[in-house]
Design brief:
EC number: 5.1.1.7
Number of strands: 17
Number of helices: 4
GO biological process, one term: lysine biosynthetic process via diaminopimelate
Order of helices and strands: EEHEEHEEEEEEHEEEHEEEE
CATH superfamily of the largest domain: Diaminopimelate Epimerase, Chain A, domain 1
Subunit structure: Homodimer.
Strand content: over 45%
CATH class of the largest domain: Alpha Beta
Largest sheet: 17 strands, mixed
CATH architecture of the largest domain: Roll
Shape: globular
CATH topology of the largest domain: Diaminopimelate Epimerase, Chain A, domain 1
Subcellular location: Cytoplasm
GO molecular function, one term: diaminopimelate epimerase activity
C-alpha cells in the first residue's frame, strides 16, 4: 500500500496524519500503524491520526497510539488535526469535529496557534498525594519538586502498571508549580514512555492547579516541548466547564512511502 502522509507536532508531541476522507486508509492494521510510528523502522511519532468524513460535522478524528491500538482522546493530536484540516481546505472560522470522546470545536489564530475546546469535567478523585480524572483520557496527577531531574519513565511506569491501573492503563503527570503557571511532564500509556507534551495531560494538571474559587482561570503550562495554555471555568469543588487547550500545531514534513499489506 502506498501512503501519503504528513508529520505534525504540537509542543513536541508528534503525529503521522493522513487524509482519509475517501476511506483509502480504512484498512490500516495495528501492525502497520505501529510500524509507521516506530522511530527507527518507520516515520516516527507518538501516534497516528486519520482525517475522516463525519456526517453532521466538518470532519471526524480517528486516533491510534504508537503501539497501533486505537486510543482515547489526544488533545495535542486534536489541535494538530485541526491545523491539518485547514491545510486540506476546511477554512471555516470555527471547525466542529467528532472524536472518540464526543464533539469538539476549534478555532485558529494566525497560521499555527490552535484553540481546542475539551469536554467538561465533573469528577475528580483526590487522594492524599494525587488527583485522578478523565479529560478525554484518564490521567493520574502528582505534584512534585525538582521536576527537571525527575526520572519520569521509571516513576511513571510504576504508577501506570500498579495493581489499580495495569489492566486499562493511565497516563501519569508530574507537576510543579511555577511563579507563572505550572511545569508538566507526562508518561503516556500506548507510547509507554515520556512524551515531550500531552494535551489531555496538561489539561488535567491545569484543572487540578485551580484555587478554591469558582471563577475563570487561565493557566500557562510549560512542557519539555514548549508552552501551552489552558483556559477554563471552575463551577464547583470538582467540576469544570468551557475548557480550552491552546497552543501551536506545526507541519514538520510530508512524504510518501510503501508499507507492507500484511
Amino acid at each position: 500500500m502506498q501512503v501519503h502522509f504528513y508529520k505534525y507536532q504540537g509542543t513536541g508531541n508528534d503525529f503521522v496524519i493522513m487524509d482519509n476522507r475517501d476511506g483509502r486508509y480504512d484498512g490500516l492494521t495495528q501492525q502497520q500503524v505501529h510500524h509507521l510510528c516506530h522511530r527507527r523502522f518507520g516515520i516516527g511519532a507518538d501516534g497516528l491520526m486519520l482525517l475522516n468524513n463525519q456526517p453532521g460535522y466538518d470532519f471526524g478524528m480517528k486516533y491510534y497510539n504508537a503501539d497501533g491500538n486505537e486510543g482515547s482522546m489526544c488533545g495535542n493530536g486534536g489541535r494538530c488535526l485541526v491545523a491539518f484540516a485547514r491545510k486540506m481546505g476546511l477554512q471555516q472560522p470555527q471547525l466542529r469535529f467528532l472524536a472518540v470522546d464526543g464533539p469538539h470545536e476549534a478555532t485558529m489564530q494566525g497560521e499555527d496557534w490552535v484553540n481546542l475546546k475539551m469536554q467538561d469535567v465533573d469528577w475528580v478523585e483526590q487522594g492524599p498525594l494525587y488527583y485522578y480524572l478523565n479529560t478525554g483520557s484518564p490521567h493520574f496527577v502528582k505534584y512534585v519538586d525538582g521536576i527537571q531531574s525527575l526520572d519520569v519513565y521509571t516513576e511513571g511506569r510504576q504508577i501506570r502498571y500498579n495493581d489499580r491501573f495495569a489492566k486499562e492503563g493511565t497516563n501519569v503527570n508530574f507537576v510543579q508549580q511555577q511563579d507563572n503557571g505550572i511545569f508538566v511532564r507526562t508518561y503516556e500509556r500506548g507510547v509507554e514512555d515520556e512524551t515531550y507534551s500531552c494535551g489531555t495531560g496538561v489539561t488535567a494538571a491545569a484543572l487540578t492547579s485551580a484555587g478554591n474559587e469558582a471563577t475563570t482561570y487561565r493557566v500557562p503550562v510549560q512542557t519539555l516541548g514548549g508552552h501551552l495554555e489552558v483556559r477554563f471555568t471552575k463551577t464547583g469543588e470538582r467540576s469544570f466547564t468551557d475548557i480550552w487547550l491552546c497552543g501551536p500545531a506545526l507541519l514538520v514534513f510530508e512524504g510518501q512511502l510503501i508499507i507492507n499489506n500484511e
